Amino acid sequence: MSRKGQIDIVARRRARECALKLLFQLDGRPPEGGDAGLNTVLETYWKHVEPEALEVPGVPPMTEELVRGVMAHLSSIDEAIQATTQRWRLERMARVDRNAIRLAAFEMLYLEVPSRIVINEAVELAKQFGTEDSGSFVNGVLDRVAELAPR
Question: Each residue's pLDDT tens digit in the chain (151 positions)?
Fold first, then answer.
């Protein structure tokens, strides 16, 4: 689904927040059963964690597009991130930071969302859910990942 102009800024931010929570949950423990397993994780999330987000137009489809996209391209996203971080292996990154970076990298590399928008959103999410250093760390990594994005 192309999101340009389809949902408002608040809904996009909420979808990214939901996607980050789901990616955090899935990190290191991809669901068994491929798409069926991911469908189960998503159903559980909407039912028990964020049922009110179902009422916000555009949030569920955008969230699912982001999560499915990151999971489908995880190895290439991780390779791109690793290529830009010389001293930080992915395993050493805080889980929130790693998944905020993955989410933003997916949007920049595969959805071609403008880098400045994606980086700003990822930094805000990292500040909200990570440590006091998360925002600057995520910003630094994503500035380098943005150089790999299509222009």
Answer: 444 455 788 899 999 999 999 999 999 777 777 778 888 999 999 999 888 888 888 999 999 999 999 999 999 999 999 999 878 889 999 999 999 999 999 999 999 899 999 999 999 999 999 999 999 999 999 999 999 887 6
Q: At 86, is the secondary structure helix, strand, or coil? A: coil
Residue count of the chain: 151
Q: Which residues contact 55 (CB under 8 A, 6 or more apart)?
A: none
Q: Which CATH code of 1.20.1250.20, 1.10.940.10, 2.40.160.20, 1.20.1050.40 fits the domain covering 9-146?
A: 1.10.940.10
Which tokens belong to 94?
A: 């805080």
pTM of the model: 0.90
56 phi/psi in degrees, rounded to 5: -90, 115
